[in-house]
Amino acid sequence: MSLNAKQLTATALIVGAIVLVFWQVFVRLVDAWIVDGNYSHGFLIIPLSIYFVWERRQKLAEAPIRPSWFGLVVLAGGIAVLMAGLWGSELFLSRIALLPVIAGIVLFLFGWTVLGIVGFPIAFLFLMIPIPSIIFNQIAFPLQLLASKLGEWAIAVVGIPVLREGNVLILPHTTLEVAEACSGIRSLVSLITLGLVYGYFMDPRTWVRTLIVVSAVPVAIVANGARVASSGMAAEWVGPEAAEGFFHEFSGFIVFIFAFAMILVIQRAILKFAPQREEAK
């Protein structure tokens, strides 16, 4: 793919137009990354996406430029989603509209071959967009209950009497509530992102990458059940303050490191039983 002066100018103008149209969307998105710890990894998504495009530079250089008018249809669909999101004050729609807009522009300017090459980097941008609250809550609450059940089981195994009522664990000397932040949704979102990036760099096989990403779900569930259990044990053996404040936050960090280490172990196990062959990414 070799661009002449007119194509470079057109590309620069279109990129500038995207930034202008989506400026307020970008501002609010960055604010969400700062405020919402569930999506603080969003700062890494755009640089990684740009790297994935750069990594494909050889394929892009060899790809023919065959503009497709269908790109305008995709672009119009993205703009329609953007307008619907802005008029309806629906943040998710206004943010997700960026993906079809970019895809439509690439398709219109360069064609299907180029779009196929950069399809993954474009789709990867989805991970920087917070999911709607209604969906988030539907995921978080069952995870809260599951983490509570796992924590209850582990605490009972070590001989500490425990009674669970929903997402509340009642122990002899304290009561623990498994809040939304401890449900595992935060580590689940981050682990899926890290698992995807790690799998991409470590193994070119699609099925291995998929398995690594999927493994993030049970790993996050087990890790957060362990966090709940450790908080309950610490509260009983050390004191209620051990399950609060700095110790509680620090335990979340330790559990996340442990969860990611489990993903590394899973990848190594896959590599042992299914050795990697020479395959192109």
Topology, please?
Blueprint lengths: L4 H17 L1 H13 L6 H14 L1 H6 L7 H18 L3 H6 L1 H13 L1 H13 L8 H25 L5 E3 L2 E3 L4 E3 L7 H18 L3 H32 L7 H29 L8
Antiparallel strand pairs: 1-2, 2-3
Please summarize what this structure is.
The protein has 281 residues and is mainly α. The protein is built from 12 helices and 3 strands, in the order H-H-H-H-H-H-H-H-H-E-E-E-H-H-H.
Please give a structural write-up:
There is one protein chain. This protein has twelve helices and three strands, in the order αααααααααβββααα. With 281 residues, it is mainly α. It folds into two domains: 5-130, no CATH class; 134-273, no CATH class. The longest helix is centred in the last third of the chain and has 32 residues, at 206-237. The radius of gyration is 23 Å and the shape is elongated. The model has no long low-confidence stretch (mean pLDDT 83).
Question: Largest sheet, if any?
Answer: 3 strands, antiparallel
Task: Based on Cα principal axes, name the global outline.
Answer: elongated
Measured as a percent range, the helix fraction is: over 70%
* Separate helix tally: 12
